[in-house]
Design a protein that fits this description.
Layout: H1 2-17, H2 20-31, H3 36-43, H4 49-88, H5 107-121, E1 125-126, E2 132-133, H6 135-138, E3 169-170, H7 176-184, E4 189-198, E5 209-219, H8 224-239, E6 246-253, E7 256-269, E8 272-275, E9 280-290, H9 292-297, E10 306-313, H10 314-322, H11 335-341, H12 349-356
Parallel strand pairs: 1-4
Antiparallel strand pairs: 2-3, 4-5, 5-10, 6-7, 7-8, 7-9, 9-10
Helix pairs in contact: 1-4, 2-4, 5-10
Bound molecules: phenylalanine (PHE).
Length: 357
């Protein structure tokens, strides 16, 4: 027992003055598998039972004392090291941050996000569909049967004929998603559909791939007044002009009746285009009440349900809102252009809305 007392005070003295490395050495030397205390523990078995109890207790107390002392010393050393570092180092908070390469949001993505955010606030949800479509969804179900003259307007990209004789195509508008949605969802329906669309057309104002946002509302009550109210509200919110003049001009689409094209007021001068002032008009949307035949093609009863649909070209409204003069630059992938016309990611309306909530 005297030996234990001696051992204990030896160890505690050494622990008191050990640095972090020495501390670990001490731990191994006493408590490790071949350590001194461990070895003494092993010897207990050879003692007579009454001696074994007292010796066991003393050894356990020693082990606890050494373990505690090592932990306490380690904690003290670590805090000391941190304190020393903190007092030795200075942080210059006035230094400018190193520039991080930050990406830009493409104006088309930005416009889609803004458009979708406005309609979502009105209670629409987002639906999507495939870029590669079949004749039924892109044309026939939309009341554009084979040989219908409206097909010629679409300058469709066709794939080669498949084994079943069917020619798939790149969708010429986002309207096929109206059909896909009505075929699987019971009214009430209230969707917006952002997506890519394709037409074999390439000049200063047309790109063979472009973007549309489609809208569809079907229920038992919605009428032309709702169409007008909804689209006027959208135009004013999107362009940020409270009293923006909005005009509905009679038009024709095979899948809506009546149909209307939507123009917004603008002025053209030598300085360029100003939205919301003057006596000029700019067309930005196609719209109309969903044709009863389209509802029938989707197994929806037109004597009970009705509603409206609209479609807009994203490039066009993006050019108008952000002042981008040339359509072709959208798809040149010129990084200098993107740095100039692109948006910081935190301006994305969905992200901003997420923070505000
Ligand atoms: N799909 C039409 C187009 O591409 C736009 C539209 C959509 C018109 C819905 C009316 C209703 O030109």
């Amino acid at each position: 027992m005297d030996d234990l007392e001696q051992l204990r005070s030896d160890l505690l003295t050494r622990i008191e003055s050990a640095d972090l490395d020495a501390l670990e050495g001490l731990r191994v030397e006493t408590l490790g598998r071949r350590g001194r205390v461990t070895a003494l523990m092993k010897e207990l078995g050879a003692l007579a039972p009454e001696q074994r109890r007292d010796a066991g207790r003393a050894l356990n107390a020693l082990k606890t004392a050494v373990t505690d002392a090592i932990d306490a010393r380690r904690a003290a050393l670590e805090t000391g090291a941190l304190d020393a570092r903190l007092s030795g180092e200075t942080i210059d908070v006035s230094l400018p941050p190193r520039p991080e390469p930050d990406g830009r949001v493409h104006p088309i993505s930005q416009a889609i996000e803004e458009i979708v955010a406005i309609f979502c606030q009105m209670g629409f949800t987002v639906a999507e569909g495939p870029d590669i479509e079949d004749d039924f969804h892109n044309f026939t179900a939309l009341n554009i049967p084979p040989e219908h003259p409206a097909r010629q307007d679409h300058d469709t990209f066709y794939f080669e004929e498949g084994e079943d004789g069917e020619r798939l195509l790149l969708r010429t508008h986002t309207s096929p998603v109206q059909i896909r949605t009505m075929l699987v969802q019971e009214p009430p329906i209230r969707i917006v559909v952002p997506g890519r669309t394709y037409r074999a057309d390439h000049d200063a104002t047309h790109s063979p791939m472009f973007h549309q946002v489609e809208g569809l509302v079907i229920d038992e009550e919605t009428h032309m007044g709702h169409l007008k109210g909804c689209l006027i509200e959208f135009c004013r919110a999107f362009f940020g002009v409270d009293d923006l003049p909005v005009r509905f001009r009679p038009s024709f689409f095979p899948f809506t009746e009546p149909s209307a094209e939507v123009d917004i007021g603008c002025s053209r001068s030598a300085d360029g285009l100003t939205i919301g002032a003057g006596d000029g008009w700019l067309e930005i949307l196609g719209s109309g009440m969903v044709h009863p035949k389209v509802l029938e093609n989707c197994n929806i009863d037109p004597s009970r349900y009705q509603g409206f649909a609209f479609g807009m070209g994203v490039e066009r409204v993006a050019m108008l809102k952000y002042g981008i003069p040339d359509l072709r630059t959208f798809f040149d992938s010129d990084l200098r252009w993107l740095r100039h016309y692109g948006f910081p990611a935190l301006d994305m309306p969905n992200v901003a809305a997420g923070f505000a909530r």
